[in-house]
Amino acid sequence: MPQTASAENAALIGDAPPETRKKIRVVHIVLIVLTIGAVLTTVISAIVFHSNHNSLIANSFFAVTLSLIVISQGVMLYWYFRGGLEPKFRYYLYYSAFCTMLVCIAGNLYYHVGPPCTCPDCP
User: Which residue from 77, 74, 50 is spatially nearest to 62, judged by alpha carbons?
Assistant: First the structure.
């Protein structure tokens, strides 16, 4: 059964009208820039900000793990842009980028705020 290209199911480069393709491209570029910015901030924070409550080894492990996740997302984006994935994977890519940004926020909160101190001398 042939599928018709609609604004919702059109691939980034496909049979969609030019204005729809431009909107989808802008959404993807913004999403990529936000995700890369969040990941770079988190990776730099993991290496630079380590103190008594977190070690450099644990922070580096988190940074490497986050980088591997982003690399797999990048491969999927590459496949999607080349047309190797169906348009329905676009929603998975949005969800994956959103979850990655949430993990980056959680990591940055841990690096910069840290767990509360439980020693009796602290206020």
Answer: 50
C-alpha to C-alpha distance for 2 and 6, rounded to whole angstroms: 13
Do the beta carbons of residue 87 and residue 11 sit within 8 Å?
yes
What is the average pLDDT value for the chain, to the nearest integer?
Answer: 80
pLDDT digits (tens, 9 = 90+) for 21-53: 788 788 888 888 999 999 999 999 888 877 656
How does 30-53 read in b/e, with b if 16+ C-beta sit within 10 Å? ebeeebeebbeebbebbeeebeee
- What is the 3-class SS of 3-48, one letter each residue? CCCCCCCCCCCCCCCHHHHHHHHHHHHHHHHHHHHHHHHHHHHHHH
